[in-house]
Amino acid sequence: MTSQETQTEGARRRVTLPPSTPDKDTPSKKGSDEPNRISHTEFQKRVTSDRSDEAVFSCQFEVFGIVQGVSFRMYTLRRAQKLGVRGWCKNTNENTVKGEIQAHRNSFESMRLWLKHTGSPTSRIDKCIFSETTELAEFTFTNFTIVVD
């Protein structure tokens, strides 16, 4: 059996593996099919800067359940940053979390689904209510923040 083949024990069949990738020391050919790799930060810049003609969607939300404390708000902040969502959230006196989100369509829908179904690992969301969605010409928030009373 060559180094390009392997044999499974149970079924006793041969599987041919694709050729291995060239060593890093091997110079790559110009015009190769390898994509140019960019950092996550550079990717985020390109994604957000190329979307100026897309509509911005906005809505307010209120989350009910075991969501008080720093954990839910911090997870919401991290998810919003990851998706490029802007807005705010805060704890209320009624033991809920209220906030507002603004984003382009795909990020907006992803954040709504996350708020409705996921939340933080230490929270239990009973329900999440959203206000009507409005379409804006541009963002009114520069980022996502946690409001502390």
In terms of topology, how is this protein built?
Blueprint: E1 5-7, E2 14-16, H1 40-49, E3 56-66, H2 70-83, E4 86-91, E5 97-103, H3 105-117, E6 124-130, E7 134-136, E8 144-146
Parallel strand pairs: 4-8
Antiparallel strand pairs: 1-2, 3-5, 3-6, 3-7, 4-5
Helix pairs in contact: 2-3
CATH architecture verdict of the domain at 52-146: 2-Layer Sandwich
What fraction of the residues are assigned to beta strands by DSSP?
A: 25-35%
Low-confidence spans? 3-9
**Assembly context of the chains:** single chain
Biggest pleated-sheet summary: 6 strands, mixed
- Average residue-wise pLDDT: 78
CATH topology of the domain at 52-146: Alpha-Beta Plaits
How many E strands?
8
Span between termini: 70 Å
Q: Number of helical runs?
A: 3
Shape assignment: extended
- Residues in helices, as a percent range: 10-25%
Q: Could you tell me the radius of gyration in angstroms?
A: 23 Å
Organism: Drosophila sechellia
Catalytic activity: an acyl phosphate + H2O = a carboxylate + phosphate + H(+)
Keywords: Hydrolase
GO molecular function: acylphosphatase activity
Can you describe this structure?
The protein is of the alpha+beta class and 149 residues long. The protein has a domain at 52-146: Alpha-Beta Plaits (2-Layer Sandwich). It has helices at 40-49, 70-83, 105-117; strands spanning 5-7, 14-16, 56-66, 86-91, 97-103, 124-130, 134-136, 144-146. The strands form two sheets. Strands 3, 4, 5, 6, 7 and 8 form a six-stranded mixed β-sheet that branches. It has a two-stranded antiparallel ribbon with strand order 1-2. Helix 2 runs antiparallel to helix 3 (105-117).
